[in-house]
Amino acid sequence: MTDDVIEHFLDEGLIERVLRPIKSGKEASVHLCRANPRTTGEELAALKIYHPLDRRDFRDESLYRDGEFIKERRIRAALAKKTRYGREVQGGIWVGREWEMLRVLFDVGAPVPRPIEATDHAILMGYVGDEADAAPQLHRYRPRDAAEAEELLDQCLRAIERMLFHDVIHGDLSPFNVLVWEGRTTVIDLPQAVDPKKNRHAEALLGRDVRRICEHFARYGAVRDHVEHASALWTSWTFADLVPEELRPLI
């Protein structure tokens, strides 16, 4: 599948060649590409290719799909029974959700990669890093001092807040899906993102996102009460009082 996916983006004139793999995870591999600036506006791009269905793990997907309604009964049954067809549908949903979340969040200024193009199996997006080095994941990045740790923590919490303001909870946020480059954080890996208006587990997922980020930075001396912070965010969102810090001067 990988060669076919790459061929599609080459044929569409979006990329000129694949330079090297960046990483490979449970669900997908990411490749650094020389982009076609005339069609993408980028010199470099990241191509995220989802693994074949037999290599992907959907054990927890019902947690994130809670509250979604699929009209066609045959599809609902296939998803519930985890048939081959159901897994194909779920695979398409997974990619489609990430693409939609990138589009929504990038348009409102959230710190996510710029979405460029998508197929049923892959997403081409803005690349974070330079040609020599990809931006490291947060878990591999050591802040220079406590002040930098505080700044990066604040950026992560503001990202969570801005996403929630636009009715998006990442749902699986951790130091493994935040990138750090030139003092800025970028949130990645959004296929499991949930709408708090629909998902009954949204408050718990928000709390887990905040806890994981706070626990990571606590080891560098940047300490927040994750329970209090998550509770304050959820309460503000529930009563429509949530306004991200960067938007407050504009109202």
Query: What letter string, H or E per element, gives the SSE order?
Result: HEEHEHHHEEHEEHH
Mean pLDDT: 87
Corresponding CATH superfamily of the largest domain: Phosphorylase Kinase, domain 1
> Radius of gyration over alpha carbons?
19 Å
CATH class wording of the largest domain: Alpha Beta
Which assembly state applies to the chains in this document?
single chain
Labels describing this entry:
single chain, 251 residues, alpha+beta, Phosphorylase Kinase, domain 1, Transferase(Phosphotransferase), domain 1, 2 domains, 5-stranded antiparallel beta sheet, two-stranded antiparallel sheet, 8 helices
Describe the protein.
The chain has 251 residues and is α+β, with helices and mostly antiparallel strands. It folds into two domains: 2-126, 2-Layer Sandwich (Phosphorylase Kinase, domain 1), CATH 3.30.200.20; 138-250, Transferase(Phosphotransferase) domain 1 (Transferase(Phosphotransferase), domain 1). Helices cover 41% and strands 17% of the residues. It is built from eight helices and seven strands; from the N terminus they run H-E-E-H-E-H-H-H-E-E-H-E-E-H-H. It has helices spanning 2-11, 37-40, 61-65, 73-81, 84-107, 146-165, 202-218, 226-238, and strands at residues 15-24, 28-35, 44-50, 115-118, 122-126, 178-181, 184-187. The strands form two sheets. The protein has a five-stranded antiparallel beta sheet with strand order 1-2-3-5-4, sandwiched between helices. Strands 6-7 form a two-stranded antiparallel ribbon. Strand 6 (178-181) and strand 7 (184-187) form a beta hairpin. Helix 4 crosses helix 5, helix 6 (146-165) packs antiparallel against helix 7 (202-218) and helix 7 packs antiparallel against helix 8. The longest helix has 24 residues, at 84-107. It is globular and about 50 Å long. Mean pLDDT is 87; it is low at 75-79.
